[in-house]
Design goal:
Keywords: Membrane, Transmembrane, Transmembrane helix. This protein is mainly alpha-helical. The chain contains 31 helices and 10 strands. Strand 3 and strand 4 form a beta hairpin. Helix 2 runs parallel beside helix 12 and helix 22 crosses helix 28.
Length: 715
């Protein structure tokens, strides 16, 4: 472009350069949906502020150098205004989202309290005058305890109500991010609301809450909704910026003499202008239909005339659920509702990452219990069912896929033997963790049934959290609370040593391996049970099998998820992980050696579990090996053998896993939860926020109301 401009008249060249310069400011402002990629980016607001000053100075310098600019000085000034608005919005958004400013924005006005000196002066005066005087304390009503804008509701929530309640509780609990403490009134109000909620409604409210958190920390939403004396300054500036660009396009099209410029330059200019207009129109559309704009409707029970547009939009944003069975086929396999919302309208990732130690040590292929249902698959299936062709199509498609998979499998194995060792050495040297995550971490679709189980478990515990001490004890439980509820004393004592007598990261590894050791051998038992006919009460048997299979899947999902967090999300787990990574590597080394001696091949997970369970563990591993190695492989075998003696082991294990995840969620730093929101969200963040709503944690410490002293003078 520089060479091309050199062939032009220098005067024309300076005019166009001056006109194009403000576009740099415009695009440095960035899109409304992303001002920061990570929480740390917000702390760099000062650098962006200085950048704004330098860039604006450069644009002004170029403009001055182009004077006298007969054709383009007005469009240049208009674009300069638009660029300053957009870049200023981004800088302001970063400033407001920086943690110090974010904390300051939630602090109330300084409260000096009652005038103690004046009260005591009057008290002393009356005492000296021998008047019968006493000081009486009365409870002062909480200034914040005002009626909610939204009346309490006990039945299912409508879409507009979901957004309104989410915004209400976001305004209350956003202080969690900066470790503020809350009053018991706020705890009671939140807990009472969520206790009467259906689990799906609670999930939808928390989804939107996290969406508000993302908008506040990573987008321009706070700036765009900025109000000063009931004037929406953010809206005015945004429409002013669009008006400037539209006016520039109009002036350039109708008023500017374009014969002075070459066709290529005119094309570039139109592209810049139309691109800027398109981006602004899309941004305004997203602003109008954002959750924050929807929350501005004061009364969802009596919405304004234009609210049906929002209602129709929220129907698209509502979670879609698809009923599916497990990939492992059993006769009485339970059906689970899996999240199938299209990615375009999904509020979070909607998946649970899984990592498995035994599968990793055997170099087995990734597996998942459920396939991801997609929206087009759901629609296609509905059409086939309406035409009564689904069964036939399903059988044909399954047969064809099996044949193709067999062919591709043999090709992959052949190519893998040739090329994989070379690639493995290269990537192991450069980015081992990244490659391990790519190759061995699988994704499990989010299950509504799992969420219902989590919700009910936390709800049950919240009923006991009446005092701060009890709430703290429950949130700090690492399985002992679940064992107290689920098993008798002799069994409980044997299991507790694998929970509270070991560090948290060790308990994660112990229970993860034990879950696998119980899971794979149980596959064969389940299949044998499904083939056995129970003529006396087949319905009860089927219900029992479905319940057991459901608890198995819950335990397996949470077990693999927690290992994924321990190994691949060390920042999130740093507050509780201890030496988890060292323990994991030592355990993998011992497992790898054991599997190598046993001539175990990839994808022989079940056989590996059987071999491990076949090892005698009469003497504790530490007594034989000492404590140099941090491996917990055979300690986990001992735990698995204890669990296998129990009839309701899967129910116990699923409850223990919920507690282990809860412990991590409440003890991880709040900033790591906030940082994770920008990466799609994790299940552990939903745990964290749901626990806060149920009053489980250490963040509720302020008594309700304050004491007000009065002087009472007797007669």
């Amino acid at each position: 472009m520089a060479g091309h401009k050199a062939n032009q008249n220098p005067e024309e060249n300076s005019d166009l350069l001056a006109f194009w310069a403000p576009f740099l400011l415009l695009h440095l402002g960035g899109p409304d949906t992303i001002t920061a990629f990570a929480l740390e980016d917000n702390e760099l607001w000062l650098r962006h502020f200085l950048g704004l000053g330098f860039q604006a100075g450069a644009v002004v310098y170029v403009f001055i150098q182009s004077l006298p600019n007969k054709n383009l000085w007005i469009p240049t000034l208009l674009m300069f205004v638009a660029g300053m608005i957009k870049y200023g919005e981004r800088t302001c958004a970063l400033y407001k989202a920086s943690l110090d400013k974010f904390r300051d924005s939630m602090l109330k006005e300084p409260d000096p309290g009652p005038n103690y000196a004046k009260l005591m002066e009057e008290y002393d005066f009356k005492k000296k005058n021998k008047l019968p005087t006493q000081i009486s304390s009365t409870l002062e009503p909480d200034k914040e305890a005002k009626a909610s804008d939204i009346p309490p509701k006990t039945d299912r929530l409508k879409d507009l109500e979901v957004v309104h309640y989410a915004y209400k509780y976001f305004q209350t609990f956003k202080g969690l991010v900066v470790d503020l403490i809350f009053s018991f009134r706020e705890r009671d109000e939140s807990r009472d609301f969520f206790k009467i909620r259906d689990p799906e409604d609670a999930l939808r409210v928390i989804e939107v809450e996290l969406n508000f958190l993302y908008g506040t920390l990573y987008t321009k939403v706070e700036v765009l909704h900025l109000r000063m004396k009931k004037i929406y300054v953010g809206y005015i500036l945004r429409f002013l910026a669009l008006a400037c660009v539209l006016a520039t396009l109009g002036i350039f099209y109708f008023k500017v003499n374009k014969q002075e410029f070459r066709g290529v330059d005119i094309g570039i200019t139109y592209t810049l202008l139309l691109g800027a207009i398109a981006l602004d129109v899309i941004a305004i559309f997203m602003l109008i239909f954002s959750d924050r704009s929807i929350a501005s409707i004061k009364d969802p029970e009596r919405p304004p005339w234009w609210a049906p547009i929002y209602k129709a939009f929220l129907v698209l944003m509502r979670p879609w659920w698809k009923t599916c069975t497990c990939n492992r086929k059993y006769e009485h396999s339970p059906k689970h509702e899996l999240l199938a919302t299209p990615l375009v309208v999904r509020r979070w990732s909607g998946s649970i990452s899984s990592h498995n130690l035994i599968r990793y040590c055997l170099k087995s292929n990734r597996t998942s219990m459920h396939g991801f249902p997609s929206w087009w698959q759901i629609m296609f299936e509905s059409i086939l069912r309406s035409l009564k062709l689904y069964e036939c199509f399903d059988k044909c498609a399954t047969c064809i896929c099996n044949v193709i998979e067999e062919c591709l499998s043999s090709i992959r194995k052949g190519l893998g033997k040739i090329f994989w060792p070379c690639f493995e050495k290269i990537f192991s040297f450069c980015a081992k963790d990244f490659m391990d995550e790519m190759v061995y971490v699988s994704l499990e679709p989010f299950s509504l049934d799992l969420w219902r189980f989590i919700f009910e478990e936390l709800k049950k515990k919240s009923e006991f959290a009446d005092t701060p001490e009890t709430a703290k004890r429950i949130s700090s439980a690492r399985g002992e609370w679940a064992l107290t509820d689920a098993c008798e004393e002799p069994e409980r004592g044997k299991l507790l040593r694998y929970l509270i007598e070991v560090p948290y990261d060790e308990s994660i590894l112990l229970w993860h391996i034990a879950t696998d050791l119980c899971y794979h051998p149980d596959d064969e038992k389940v299949r044998k049970n499904t083939n056995r006919q129970d003529t006396e009460n087949p319905t009860n048997r089927q219900d029992h099998e479905k319940e057991e299979l459901t608890y198995r899947q819950f335990s397996k999902t949470l077990s693999d998820y927690m290992l994924y967090l321990l190994v691949f999300r060390p920042t999130m787990m740093s507050a509780v992980a201890g030496i988890g990574k060292i323990r994991f590597r030592d355990t993998c080394a011992e497992a790898g050696r054991f599997f190598k001696i046993g001539d175990l091949l990839p994808n022989q997970d079940k056989k590996a579990c059987e071999k491990l369970l076949g090892v005698r563990t009469d003497v504790g591993p530490q007594e034989v090996k000492g404590d140099r190695s941090k491996s917990v492989l055979f300690d986990a075998c001992m735990l698995a053998k204890e669990l296998n003696k129990m009839n309701n082991k899967w129910k116990i294990m699923s409850k223990v896993w919920v507690e282990l995840v809860s412990y991590a969620a409440s003890h991880c730093r709040a900033s790591t939860h906030a940082a994770d929101v920008s990466q799609g969200g994790e299940l552990i963040t939903f745990f964290w926020l749901l626990m806060a709503h149920f009053g489980l944690g250490e963040q509720f410490q302020i008594n309700e109301g304050h004491a007000r002293a009065k002087l009472i003078v007797g007669k």
